[in-house]
Amino acid sequence: MWSFSHIANEMHEWLSKTFNPTLTLIIEMVIAGVAVIGLFAGLGLVLVIMERKVSAWMQIRLGPNRVGPKGMLQSLADTVKLLVKEGLTPDGADKFLFNLAPFIAMIVAMLLMAPIAFARDFQLWDMNIGVLYVSAVSSIMVISILIAGWSSNNKYSLMGAMRSGAQIVSYELSAGLSVLAIVVLTGSLQVSDIIQSQKDGWWIFKGHIPVIIAFVTFIIAVTAETNRAPFDLAEAESELTAGFHTEYSGMKFALFFLAEYVNVFIVCAIGATLFLGGWMPFHIGNWTDFNHVMDYIPSSIWFFGKTFFLIFVIMWFRWTFPRLRIDQLLNLEWKYLLPISMINLVVVTAMAILKWHF
Amino acid sequence: MYRQTEIINDASQNPSLGGSGETGDLIINVGPQHPATHGVLHLVITLNGETIKKVEPHLGFIHRSIEKMCESLSYRQFIYVTSRMDYLSSHINNHACALCVEKGLQVEIPPRAQVIRVLMDELTRIASHELWWGAMAMDLGAFTPFFHAFRERESINDIMEETCGARLTMNYIVPGGVMQDLHPNFQNKVKAFMQLYKRKIHEYDELVTGNIIFQNRMKNIGYLSPEDAISYGCSGPTARGSGVSCDIRKIYPYEIYDKLEFDEVLETAGDSFARYMIRIREMQQSIRIIEQLIDNIPEGDFQAKTKAVLKLPKGDFYSRVETARGELGVYIVSEGGTTPYRIKFRSPGFSNLSVLDHIARGSKLGDLVAMMGTLDLVIPDIDR
Amino acid sequence: MSKEINHKEPSSIPPSGGWGGYIKDVYRGVKSLLVGMKRTMYYFTHHKEIITQQYPDNRETLDLPDRFKGEVVMPHDEKNEHRCTGCQACELACPNGTIKVITQSVILADGRKKKAIDKLVYHLELCTMCNLCIVACPSDAIVMAQTFEHSVFDRNELTKILNNPGSKIMEGVE
Ligand code: SF4
Ligand code: SF4
Fold first, then answer.
1. pTM, whole model, 2 decimals?
2. Is C132 close to ligand 1, i.e. is its CB under 6 Å away?
3. Which residues have CB under 8 Å from B6's CB, separation 6+?
């Protein structure tokens, strides 16, 4: 069958036949890197136009409709604009850190791509601690925001960065706890194991109410972690003009912008992997015929379909809700989400021990 | 390398920048170009972390000396300038000036003109509150309501455009009445608007008013006690949110307001949410007024006969109206000539802004935006 | 300084009575959020509600009300005649000095001398579209046009002469 994993294997075989193993590995790494960067650019373009269209339709507008068919090339035009814009570094800024920050944001987003399974057997690195790796690496993100805020030498940026720090550190707890719920049920940290465990049904269906609660908590927590409205306090344009990236312009701003969207994609991909089965088609118990029909849809379509559904939900939040205040944001986490997800984790553990799930 | 901290210390030691001299205070300049000030207002805010210690408004960025300009314009001409003060209730501003001139001229306004003026006033009020509602939600980070509010506002603007010829600065009122008669489509269009409004009003609750995030951000912040509201000279929805009855339409009725049935909207909580609710409920009262009048517009002249050149007798004249933001007073001193000797506008925005420092102290920076939203500041109205 | 701060600690979450209250809070909060999301979803799926006008594209069909104040013009009939007597009432009525009426005396057919306009200069860049000149004109010689695309590259183009070259006053207009 024509699939991502098939192409990857063919390529690997051909490369190993032609070159020696070391060279093969290097070439493969280069290909993977280029593919990730390409995916980045593609995701940026797609997600920006998606966000603009979603917001426009929710706001009874048409949205971009000039560049390309139905305005679909608008984000390409915007990228060109950002590329040719002057990337200004403010006089009082700490030049080295100021220029470093957007790249940290970018590199973190790239690293997070590694354990994501885009299709059946198509994964950059299926390490045995995949989920732990994601939690660990994603917390580096906050460093780039802090650096950006501090080095800009702008009080708005600094405040945005400090807010962001408090916010990401606290929301990582409930994001982690809700991820743990699935890890407990699966008994493995490996992404491929987690997906395999959903062969006969996704966790959101198999896991009863506790998993649904974990899922909702996860969505809220990752919305906060990616600094998206209603938790976009780090940017909060009506309070802090543009928060931590107030001073950034041109391509450096674009990198932050891109990193935000790629992060949204990644957290949604992880959410889809953990709760909605990743690339696993929709299977119901032992309805073999139905399952066969579902198998005909390529696994990459399942994966991207689920991920984009979650991305849409997060966009939907953004264009509906007002922003929280900083103390309310922390209240929500410490008074509501954290206790709920802790109790939930206990319930899930009991469920896993007693085999109450399907 | 460590300039950031240095600047904080410098600014806090510099009392001319509003610094209290305490190290650790962060002084930030909100505005004159800032998304939350909706204009060129400059606020110097002393912060302790996220908590506000002091807010100091700096005015004058859009001062056009309208009062002085009016002194060189005739009594017919100066009215249009006042549209540029509170541009969202420009019609009501014009109304206040016309009332003052008419007081001096002792002319009787034909009933038709009175009804037209009141109808337009209320439409302007709704349009203004509509815009405020959208901008308020936008200040709190919700963008969608802004566009929804503009849909309703747009149909009012269309009505205005058809009858007055302009959408924002109408200049429809002249001393003695209104400039032109109503457009034949006026009644139908207003009725269509009211239907649209009634069909859509529940969306305001769904999107904003009932939203738990919104309520939590508005309730219990920016408390303004009735005593403070009076002593700072607040008026309009800002004061009524604290339970101070100050609706000029009720206390000093002008035109036909004393014959109309409507309630003065009052809330007692005094917080931002109360001020928010006042405006939402005021829109419904305005709809009520329009409903009473739209089918009962008396026939007759739309303008009283006045002389070509208006001359006010020697003396001083004062009139006040309720704009969408509060009490607008117009004070004219006349020497008997064709132009006023002195004009003074008592604009609601100025007094309402002065209360900001008082209500903002001790709350968070994010709250400041919400409070400024509920004061409904229009900067050209403050500076004039 | 900091002593003056009156502490109104914002109690963002309303006090809830025990476990029941806690759960009720969560339920009410979530419900209010879902109601808002339902509303935006409605608009997301109902594109008929979109009210955007695609302005430069709909130039042809753009229907401005006949009272729309876009620019002061002086209508001329097919014989190139206008109604302006040169009385300067508009110039006096204008608050901004937008209009300058330049008169000349012409000799009529019967030998009488009469005042008539040479030029009626109108500075569009100064005009605030207040309509006062139109109301002041005793012979309805000027009206508001519904044009609104006034941007030009050279601001001299904004100074206009309203009467056509070679035009004269209509019969019977005093
Ligand atoms: S519309 Fe007003 S500003 Fe313009 S020319 Fe006429 S009187 Fe002057
Ligand atoms: S346009 Fe009218 S008011 Fe002006 S000079 Fe001509 S006739 Fe008089």
1. 0.84
2. yes
3. none
